[in-house]
Amino acid sequence: MAEPLSTDEIDQQLNELPGWEYKDDKLTKEFSFDNFRDAMSFITRLSYEAEEQVHHPEIFNVYNTVEISLSTHDAGGKVTEKDIALAKTIESLHNN
């Protein structure tokens, strides 16, 4: 079972994840794209990375906006290192 991070540990990690927030026991961020196709392309690329990490985010999409929420089910729906790692991967996908 994954160990939840403390609020202080999460806050420290958020310093390296611009735009990400910690609320309701989840890491969340909203991404905007030029159009629907770019948003869906991002989601598709993300799906491969998430599957590789065996960690699956909550994804909400409307037109050119993608909202992602991360928590770890094995840790009772709390934030763990797995969420931090996937958030960093998501940032690298968005910045490429």
In one word, what is the shape? globular
CATH class: Alpha Beta
Q: What is the number of strand segments?
A: 4
Tell me the Rg in angstroms.
13 Å
Instruction: Please identify the structural class as seen in this structure.
Output: alpha+beta
Helix content: 40-55%
The number of distinct structural domains comes to 1
CATH topology: Gyrase A, domain 2
Mean pLDDT: 96
Feature tags:
22% strand; globular; EC 4.2.1.96; Gyrase A, domain 2; 4-alpha-hydroxytetrahydrobiopterin dehydratase activity; single chain; four-stranded antiparallel sheet; 3 helices
Lay out the secondary structure:
Blueprint: H1 7-14, E1 21-23, E2 26-32, H2 36-53, E3 58-62, E4 65-70, H3 81-94
Antiparallel strand pairs: 1-2, 2-4, 3-4
Helix pairs in contact: 2-3
Pfam families: Pterin_4a
InterPro entries: PCD_sf, Pterin_deHydtase
EC number: 4.2.1.96
What can you tell me about this protein's structure?
The protein is 42% helix and 22% strand. With 96 residues, it is an alpha+beta fold. The chain has a single domain (7-13, 21-94), classed as Gyrase A, domain 2, CATH 3.30.1360.20. Helix 2 packs antiparallel against helix 3.
